[in-house]
Amino acid sequence: MSDAAITNTAEGSYPTGKSGRPSKVAIIGAGAVGSTLAYACVTKGVAREIVLQDIAKEKVEAEALDIAQGIQFTSAGAVSGSDDPEICRGADVIAITAGAKQKPGQSRLDLAGATVGIMEKILPKLVEVAPHAIFLLVANPVDVVTYCARKITGLPDNQVFGSGTVLDTARMRYLVSLETGTATQNIHGYIAGEHGDSEVALWSSCEIGGVPVTQWGRTLDGGIFDQAKRDRIAYDVVRSAYRIIEGKGVTNYAVGLAVQKIISAVLNDEQRVLTISPLLENWHGISDVCMAVPTIVGREGAGRRLELPLTLDERDRLTASAQRLREVARGLGY
């Protein structure tokens, strides 16, 4: 075991892998998102073993060692880091955060070519060492990257999907909670489509404790939860990443927690509905594109895509979002 790996001998309550052996999560990329995700997985006890892989040897070993030296205070078992993809062998879930960095003013789609180029280099080796893993794409533009990753790996639809709008959905629910004074856990609503500028808030199916948000009435500021307020929330969700990047250069904490929740849903076979980004085939007439829709997530990865009732406007905007993503992928040769 390298200096970047420390094992905790205390009993943990982590799930096991498919074969019954201790579970293993591999995270590709030791930047702000990857290292924060590793930290979130360790503190939540998501898996028995967490490994970080990055081409920057000193960086990845240092990040892993920094996390590993605190596992006495968690239920994690082992944390290690390496520049060798071999460290990912036998992983149950591989989360890929490595990609081009989004700069202030850039849209996520601006990153497409550079990030897909990285995927073309790293994915074949990862499939070789962990052919049965669930591949969870996090690098932006996540929907285009996920579609290309499916083509590169040739793996089944359920086995390759993106983190989608799980974070955007959480942002939406957080903002609705601030307006209404209700707990985020009691707000059921989704952001679908591109994880980016063309995403769509599905207000027609959003509920607070069973009450449609369109019928909520008064909010904490004394106003009505009307279309103008809903439009403002949707706009703020889209702008959240830009605002954070302008202020600190990167988004990492909330996305780390969001992706940790997806990994947990897989390893614990939770059958949880999450707005991940799987391949769509005739979802409300939308096909041959990866983008976020409410999807049942469990041990086999991406399961049933739920066809929520949509208004005509929502359907048209999602169709346009899909076309936008499809065009970018085609422009990259996929």
From TrEMBL:
Enzyme Commission designation: 1.1.1.27
GO cellular component, one term: cytoplasm
Keyword NAD on entry: yes
Stored InterPro entries: L-lactate/malate_DH (IPR001557), L-lactate_DH (IPR011304), L-lactate_DH_AS (IPR018177), Lactate/malate_DH_C (IPR022383), Lactate/malate_DH_N (IPR001236), Lactate_DH/Glyco_Ohase_4_C (IPR015955), NAD(P)-bd_dom_sf (IPR036291)
Keywords: Allosteric enzyme, Cytoplasm, NAD, Oxidoreductase, Phosphoprotein
Chain positions recorded as NAD(+) binding sites: 29-34, 54, 59, 99-100, 138-140, 163
Role of this protein: Catalyzes the conversion of lactate to pyruvate.
Name this protein carries in UniProt: L-lactate dehydrogenase
Organism: Actinomyces marmotae
Gene responsible for this protein: ldh
